[in-house]
Amino acid sequence: MNLPDLTPEERARYEWQMWVPGLGEDGQRKLKAATVLISRVGGLGGLVALQLAAAGVGRLILAHGGRLKAADLNRQLLQTTEHIGQPRMESILRRLRELNPGVTLEGHAENMTPALAETLVPRADIVVDAAPLFQERLAMNDAAMRHGRPMVECAMHSLEASVTTFLPGQTGCLRCYVPEVPATWTRQFPVLGAVSHTAASLGSMEVIKLITGLGEPLAGRLMSIDHAAARTRTIRLPRRPDCPACGAYG
Question: In the chain, count of helices (H) and strands (E)?
Fold first, then answer.
């Protein structure tokens, strides 16, 4: 793989992170060459996008529909009070460009559907799922497994944050343990911004590790953080051989 060179401006911007053992210039060039798709760029996915843009991921494909509401502002740090009532994607793209104009951004002002996933997933190297609805999560999961793309799954509820990584052919997938949309799940649930941002930081590091080869990803393992109890746990996730999404890998 031919990796892009770094410009003098990029060397200056990323100087301190290239000091990280195992990253260096080669790792930074891998980040620059990578394309990451993020489904929902709100309180959780927005911070993933912000951190990946800051780290120098070369291209971000972003999907998030709707207009900004006042209730979004406790967690969606790519938004501003003045933007209430306006399409969320406008502010998302503007704020990311202000942080790092060297990152190529592609915004889609719609939420993930099977059709959109089928269009966008093949164009990414890695996909990040940060959607609140399981319809969107499963659509992204199925496309990621079908096209052989790693998927970083980020979630939160109340004071608990969780992250896992699915690798096609090596681990199970989201549909292995959530085979269909839970009947009791609703769009609105307790959200504290700091908890969303914890999940976002963990998810961003999963992406960076997958791109650069740093460390060990949470492949087939779910890490959860209970902020109330200040406790973490990691569990193995099941892999169903008869899963309709990933079972074909055997």
Answer: 8, 8
